[in-house]
Amino acid sequence: MKALLGLRGLDNQLAGLPMMSTMNPEKSTISDDQRVEIKGHLSVVYSNMAACHLKNKNYRRAIENATAALAQDPNNIKAKFRRAQAKLADGNLAGAEADLISLGDSVPGVKAEKEKIKKLTKEADEKQRKTMGGFLNRGRIIDDEERQNEAAQASQSEYEPSTWSGTAPKIQELAEGEV
């Protein structure tokens, strides 16, 4: 944490340096190389914090820290991979897939994470089809066991009118021919 505070202090000094350099050009002590180095260190610290949050299953904080690392250094591969892992664990499959695609397949572990996403996407699609498939009996997925159960129920059940309505007994009398 002290490293982050120290680096953020240097980063804040960088933000104020342009104004200071116009007032006193001799006191502008941080060069462009140092500026890039500080941003690189900040990116690494944020990326490591993201790894800690990922390990502790605090996925939202892991995403925030990985994004902060990428703001400092957009080419930080570890930060992008960690953000993808956190998004995947948090349930954001599309966001995780976008991060992994931007990394490419040459990075170790990307293929395995993409396979996880494919598997989870397939499971989610299957679950949605089963829950929404019965909507108005269109597109309902019925396996053999369900089909047999429905056939058995249909053959065993007889018409039993509901008794909540006063017309049900009359309908039953008409059906039985007791008028």
Automatic annotation (TrEMBL):
It comes from the Eukaryota. Residues 150-166 have a biased composition (Polar residues). The keyword Repeat applies. Residues 124-179 are annotated as: Disordered. Keywords: Repeat, TPR repeat. InterPro entries: AIP/AIPL1/TTC9 (IPR039663), TPR-like_helical_dom_sf (IPR011990), TPR_rpt (IPR019734). TPR repeats lie at residues 43-76. PANTHER family: ARYL HYDROCARBON RECEPTOR INTERACTING PROTEIN RELATED (PTHR11242), TPR_REGION DOMAIN-CONTAINING PROTEIN (PTHR11242:SF0). This is Tetratricopeptide repeat-containing protein. It comes from Lunasporangiospora selenospora.
